[in-house]
């Protein structure tokens, strides 16, 4: 079947193996179309001049390098952190947060450049193809999307290496070190190679980049104090910081003490299980501190319901539905829960562990006078007898009926 031809294609470009190969492949298979690259700077460590040079050398006519870091933290990471969103109870969704933002900016650039298609380098097995494409369709549902991994004859990373070598495309990686990675301000993921066997323990000394394993962390602990205003972290150890500065500082501190290393087998949206190692040092500290503050500020019913909301919120984000009406509706609920989420949390970091060291808030619902085991004047303990009888009335009524039925047999 003859492919539809395009004049100008915008490619989500990272400079890695996949997208380096995709530029010449697009030109070969889509009528020598012009290829423009777009890279979202969401906090990954890159030599941006080298990335741009590599894109041009691979055949791109130009490369947009968009600094999205502040928007990434303030409009995506922090709202989800306020929600307490963790996919399957553990994964802090580092990759999933970045994709809708990048997709949104890609559509804007595609319109600006007059592109008649958008391409990405996501595989047909992964979640990111869904996240990118749903994000693109949110802002331009009629935009054609090219996904080479679902079209080309290259079936493996080895095929990509051979293609790159045949087309003289320089690569920053080798066959031996080709973990599939995704890095941003929030995390760094590692997948592939020996990690595909969940029976094997990861070699943290070999793969970790944002920090060290707990074994290599200092023997002395470190304390950190985080100030929140309406659920948003604003200061470390009393020093006001921008969102970017705060996350970067906690990444450095958490990495030093082996915080935030996750070895997980997760359920991908497409149906398979996938094993990976994620580094989220600063994010793990922030989630823990925020949850600790909620323990003293939120009332019981709101807190318990919010925990249910967090599971659904995380599932939506993981599945690429950031822009969905349901995610936005859940965010409205979360925002209301954060109105009084102001206070200070002190934590001790020690060899991969986060140890609670104190929490205060002007909106705390905790009452030492009520909770004390010592004598108090505001709680009559004998009132509990009537409460238990009323609370247990359905159980008592059922038990009496069951005894009657047994007696009739």
What is the molecular shape? elongated
Structural class per helix/strand content? alpha/beta
CATH class of the largest domain: Alpha Beta
Q: Give the domain tally.
A: 2
Overall radius of gyration: 26 Å
Major sheet characteristics: 5 strands, parallel
Low-confidence stretches: none
Please work out how many helical segments DSSP would assign: 14
Strands in their spatial order, largest beta sheet: 3-2-1-4-5
Helix content: 40-55%
Binding site for L-aspartate: 123, 127-128
Subcellular location: Cytoplasm
Keywords: Amino-acid biosynthesis, Arginine biosynthesis, ATP-binding, Cytoplasm, Ligase, Nucleotide-binding
Catalytic activity: L-citrulline + L-aspartate + ATP = 2-(N(omega)-L-arginino)succinate + AMP + diphosphate + H(+)
Structure explained in plain terms:
With 409 residues, the chain is α/β, with parallel strands linked by helices. It folds into two domains: 8-72 and 90-167, 3-Layer(aba) Sandwich (Rossmann fold); 180-360, Argininosuccinate synthetase, chain A, domain 2 (Alpha-Beta Complex). It is 43% helix and 19% strand. The protein contains 14 helices and 14 strands. It has helices spanning 17-29, 48-57, 69-83, 94-113, 128-139, 157-166, 204-207, 243-256, 281-297, 300-318, 325-337, 368-371, 383-391, 393-408, and strands at residues 8-12, 34-41, 62-67, 117-119, 145-146, 180-183, 188-191, 222-229, 232-236, 239-240, 261-267, 273-279, 343-350, 353-360. A five-stranded parallel sheet has the order 3-2-1-4-5, sandwiched between helices. Strands 10-9-8-13-14 form a five-stranded antiparallel sheet. Strands 6-7-12-11 form a four-stranded antiparallel sheet, with no helix packed on it. A hairpin with a 4-residue loop joins strand 6 and strand 7. Helix 1 (17-29) packs across helix 6 (157-166), helix 3 packs across helix 4 (94-113) and helix 4 packs across helix 5. The radius of gyration is 26 Å and the shape is elongated. 35% of the residues are buried.
């Amino acid at each position: 079947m003859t492919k539809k031809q395009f004049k100008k294609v915008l490619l989500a470009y990272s400079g890695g193996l996949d997208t380096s190969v995709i530029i010449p492949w697009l030109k070969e298979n889509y009528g020598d179309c012009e290829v423009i690259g777009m890279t979202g700077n969401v906090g990954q460590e890159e030599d941006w001049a080298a990335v741009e040079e590599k894109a041009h050398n691979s055949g791109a006519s130009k490369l947009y390098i968009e600094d999205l870091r502040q928007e990434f933290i303030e409009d995506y990471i922090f709202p989800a952190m306020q929600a307490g969103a963790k996919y399957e109870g553990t994964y802090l969704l580092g990759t999933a947060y970045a994709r809708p933002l990048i997709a949104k900016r890609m559509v804007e650039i595609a319109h600006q450049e007059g592109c008649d298609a958008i391409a990405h380098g996501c595989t047909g097995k992964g979640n990111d193809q869904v996240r990118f494409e749903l994000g693109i369709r949110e802002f331009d549902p009629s935009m054609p999307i090219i996904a080479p991994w679902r079209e080309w004859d290259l079936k493996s990373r080895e095929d990509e290496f051979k293609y790159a070598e045949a087309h003289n495309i320089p690569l920053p990686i080798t066959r031996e070190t080709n973990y599939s990675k995704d890095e941003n301000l929030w995390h760094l993921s590692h997948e592939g190679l020996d990690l595909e066997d969940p029976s094997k323990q990861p070699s943290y000394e070999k793969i970790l980049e944002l920090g060290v394993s707990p074994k290599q962390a200092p023997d002395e602990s470190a304390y950190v104090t985080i100030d929140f205003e309406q659920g948003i972290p604003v200061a470390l150890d009393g020093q006001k910081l921008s969102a970017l500065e705060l996350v970067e500082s906690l990444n450095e501190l958490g990495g030093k003490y082996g915080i935030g290393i996750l070895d997980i087998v997760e359920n991908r949206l497409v149906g398979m299980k996938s094993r990976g190692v994620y580094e989220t040092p600063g994010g793990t500290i922030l989630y823990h501190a925020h949850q600790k503050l909620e323990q003293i500020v939120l009332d019981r019913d709101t807190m318990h319901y919010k925990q249910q909301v967090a599971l659904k919120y995380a599932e939506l984000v993981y599945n690429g539905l950031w822009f969905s009406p349901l995610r936005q509706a859940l965010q409205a609920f979360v925002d209301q829960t954060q109105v009084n989420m102001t206070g200070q949390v002190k934590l001790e970091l020690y060899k991969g562990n986060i140890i609670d060291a104190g929490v205060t808030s002007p909106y705390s619902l905790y009452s030492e006078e009520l909770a004390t085991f010592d004598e108090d004047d505001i709680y009559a303990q004998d009132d509990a007898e009537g409460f238990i009888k009323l609370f247990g009335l359905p159980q008592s009524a059922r038990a009496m009926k069951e005894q009657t039925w047994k007696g009739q047999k």
